[in-house]
Amino acid sequence: MKVKSPLEVYNFLPRTNCKECGYDTCMSFASHVLDRSAKVYDCKPLARDAEKDPKVKEKLDKLVELTSPEIAEVLIGVGEKALKIGGEEVLHRHELTFFNPTAFFFDVWDTLDDKKIEERCKRVVDYKKFYVGKYLTLDGFAVRCTSNDPKRFREVAKKVASYGKPMVLIALNPECMKSALEEVANQRPLIYAATESNWKEFMKLALDYKVPVTIRAKDLNTLKSIAVTFKSAGIKDIVLDPVTEPLGEGLQGTFERVIQLRRKAILDGDKDVAYPIMITPISAWLIEGDEVTKAYWEAVIAGMFIVKYGDAMIFHSIDQHVVMPTLTLRFNIYTDPRTPVQVAAGLRELNNPGPDDPVFLTTNFALTYYTVENDLNSAKIKGWLLVVNTEGIGVEASVAGGKLTAAKVKEIIEETKIAEKVNHRYLVIPGLAARLQGSIEDETGWKVLVGPIDSGRIKGWMEKNWPPKK
Amino acid sequence: MVAKYKLEDLLELLKNYNVERLEDVKIEGDLEIEIEGGSGVDISSLTALYTLLNEFRYFFYHTSMALNYLQRISTVLGVPSPFQVAPVAPAVAPAPQPTAPPVPELKLPEKLVEAKFEPVKVEYPGYIEEVVLGATRADGGTRDYVVKLGGEKSLPFYIFDKPQPNLPAIAIDVFDRPPSLAKAVKVHYEDVIGSPAEWAKKCVKKFGADMVTIHLVSTDPLLENTPASEAVKVIEDVLQAVKCPIIIGGCGNKDKDPEVLEKAAEVCEGERVMLASATLDMDWERICNAAKKYGHAVLSWTQMDINNQKTLNRYLLKRAQMPRNSIVMDPTTAALGYGLDYAFTNMERIRISGLKGDTDLNFPISSGTTNAWGAREAWMAESPLEGDTPWGPRELRGPIWEIITGLTLSLAGVDVFMMMHPLAVAVLKEIFNTLGGKKKGGIADAGKWITAEV
Ligand code: B12
Ligand code: SF4
């Protein structure tokens, strides 16, 4: 965004502190616009006045322009599950943060028989992997027209749409695309792709059906030319595919094109290429080799461009050795480096514990806490979990850094009055905090049991160590 | 009531708001801001504060933090923020306009609007030092070749900005006692696990390592506590067995390592090894002196903290007088899913600082990528959580966990990877050669997937 200080935003606002936006002051609202947690249109008085007064409208438009992200934001799908892609501001995450995680679309093709299609769709829809407090899931489908038959493509698009996830429709033949759009345009799929040879038809499809469109061209002059042409025709929702070549010089060229596109948009402010970027790791399936080689290389291509500017991706493999690492990488790269991920300190009760059940100790780093909580829940262990405020630092680092100490443990024992809830005095600490055993015992008078290094192994540990042998 | 705020207090307070890197802010003079509570406040003082904050905003992760802070101060002190009471320009609503301007009918273009894409070239004033490991006969050693690290003038693999003189190198870990390894890793080393020399040979001959790292873990006082003079015998065997440059690792004990590495430096005289590692809390000077005396490089290891890295590097340069071409940094590697975000960003910031001309940080970077195997996703047989979609065979999950960890960090600027799984080694090599422009050819029709049943 062009503005750098809240004052610059403030100057555009009505400055009445009316609170309609939900913030106490216009200044506070301005700072939230700046960190993108509020939208200009949330200032209702401004929006209302703009409807009546062209001068105010001009001001509003100017403010929207000044505060809009460097890279255009494109919406795919409708309703709650709609995906926002693009909207980025910086080249390196430490300069601010990356905003909209790369969207993952999974391959379904129309020459597959219906049963297999359903199987694949179900696998995508059902997929989940627990990570820091929530389940990571997969975003949507890429429906490919391999039949070149408009009727079949339409039929499959409809079937896939019934799973309720955002879609990319893939066909270079405008006839096929049109046929599918007649069926599912109301789901706001992203269409793929306008090329040097079909751009006219695709331009019309994008306009007629009001859907976002991908432009595909390896030559960046051509890519930009089609984008400029589309923009002049009134198309705003554009995604750029500079063509993912899966191997050798080709892949190196892809890397260069992607970086050049993003740099041009952010460093030079060139709005004609400031669109989300599409990457197709599925291209890895064109290389020679066995399935594992292809799948690995698909994960490699995805990894490269999760780190470097890919906003949407098309995958073929739904195997864990592709999905799990790429999904985790996406989460890591798109974590906001400005906010420590932590949970509230205090006492958690797991599975309705009683006075004889064990008392566990952990830290309030979200990754640590949720891992431990889930391990204990999954293993159906009844117990009390003391969560120490280590300022969002995990076990080992907080022991090393002095954020997890015997004094802190004493404090949490007292604050939570855990002693009144159990009729024993045994505290189970993480294996990685073993060196605190003695000092905690001295400080608190509780007997300290050193648990396993990984909370996933508490169950086995309990079988041998709980209840403690007197 | 008058509240006085010194800039120092302010900076101290800002620390609570996660404002990082204040140490570079130079405070000239003792700026003091007075704020009176109650009515009749001189709000210009807060405005001054705001201006001040605004000037320092580049030190903050985000501008609004400064402002939020200011608003908090005003709330705490019970004074209105200057912006709330600034003269309000009432947005007087004029008579409503009856009609919106007509939307012009768009004519669809018949021809492509020709546009030219001019790529941006990015040049940095600085460069990364080049560090040579190993010495051939010509240089008084017995290695068959040397490995050069660093030398970049642009971001990793941005060969369209500047050629990258040296692609990242890979060193495979060898231990002087049987380590605890993930099963998927162990199977590849079972036959050599008792013999570091055979182990090293396998890494080079079979798995294509550019170098090997021999970790003298048995010197750990909590383990065998092997005396330094005895532990280093293993190094002699390894030097005999392989002719690649080598890296020597200690056990991580801050009292023992300097002694062990000193002895290692001596037995490796002339071979130009890398001594791993010097850390802030050990006698780095002793390690550096040994390195200088026998002509080796030193690994400067800190734990995910750019400022600590800077400090340690300065100690090595200024106090221990290490030559600039003999320092490599390890800013610490965390596994994918277990802190990789911290590791990546820390390294990326270090690399960019180096390229921008920070001569305390422009050294090649090393990564202990084997750490990836610490992630449960890499080694556990199945998810301990019943809600998860089954994790699939761990033989496939493990190596890719190491690959993606390494790949990500290579994009942050790592120059040498210490790793273990042979498949991960092979795939990372392929990636480096590809992005480094060393692979010719490709797939003729990259668009084939669009219509093919892949
Ligand atoms: C990411 C990281 C950081 C991040 C912290 C991010 C965060 N929010 O926590 C940052 C960069 C801030 C950091 C800082 C430091 N770090 Co650090 N860091 C790491 C790293 C790479 C990963 C740690 C991690 O997140 N693990 C994942 C979490 C989920 O693990 P966990 O909290 O331990 O939880 C597991 C177990 O403990 C167990 N568990 C948890 N609770 C419970 C409860 C019970 C009852 C049981 C049985 C089990 C159990 O199960 C959990 C799941 O497996 C490790 C190295 C590594 N690869 O492991 C170094 C590491 C932990 N850090 C280290 C150090 C020294 C530090 C610093 C002191 C460095 C410095 N000089 O500033 C600071 C201290 C920070 C502070 N102020 O307190 C050292 C610790 C050395 C030691 N053993 O003493 C390590 C091991 C690196 C190293 N090899 O030297 N670090
Ligand atoms: S709604 Fe607009 S005018 Fe009202 S407080 Fe919010 S920003 Fe100010």
Structure characterization notes:
- The complex is a heterodimer of chains A (470) and B (454).
- Chain A is an alpha/beta fold and 470 residues long.
- Chain A has three domains: 6-66, Electron transport complex subunit B, putative Fe-S cluster (3-methyladenine DNA Glycosylase II, Chain A, domain 3, Orthogonal Bundle), CATH 1.10.15; 73-333, TIM Barrel (Alpha-Beta Barrel); 346-465, Rossmann fold (3-Layer(aba) Sandwich), CATH 3.40.50.
- Chain A is 41% helix and 16% strand.
- Chain A has 17 helices and 17 strands.
- In chain A, the strands form four sheets. Chain A has an eight-stranded parallel beta sheet with strand order 10-9-8-7-6-3-12-11. In chain A, strands 13-15-14-16-17 form a five-stranded mixed beta sheet, with helices on both faces. Chain A has a two-stranded antiparallel sheet with strand order 1-2.
- In chain A, strand 14, helix 13 (366-378) and strand 15 form a beta-alpha-beta unit.
- In chain A, helix 6 (150-161) runs parallel beside helix 7 (174-184) and helix 7 (174-184) packs parallel to helix 8.
- Chain A is globular and about 80 Å long.
- Chain A starts with 5 loop residues before the first helix and ends in a 5-residue tail after the last helix.
- The model of chain A has no long low-confidence stretch (mean pLDDT 95).
- Chain B is α/β, with parallel strands linked by helices and 454 residues long.
- Chain B has two domains: 1-108, no CATH class; 130-435, TIM Barrel.
- Chain B has 15 helices and twelve strands.
- In chain B, the strands form three sheets. Chain B has an eight-stranded parallel beta sheet. In chain B, strands 1-2 form a two-stranded antiparallel ribbon.
- In chain B, helix 10 (284-294) links the parallel strand 8 and strand 9.
- In chain B, helix 2 packs antiparallel against helix 3 (63-77) and helix 6 packs parallel to helix 8.
- The termini of chain B are far apart.
- The structure holds cobalamin and iron/sulfur cluster (SF4).
- Iron/sulfur cluster is lined by residues 13-14, 16-21, 23, 26, 29, 43-46 of chain A.
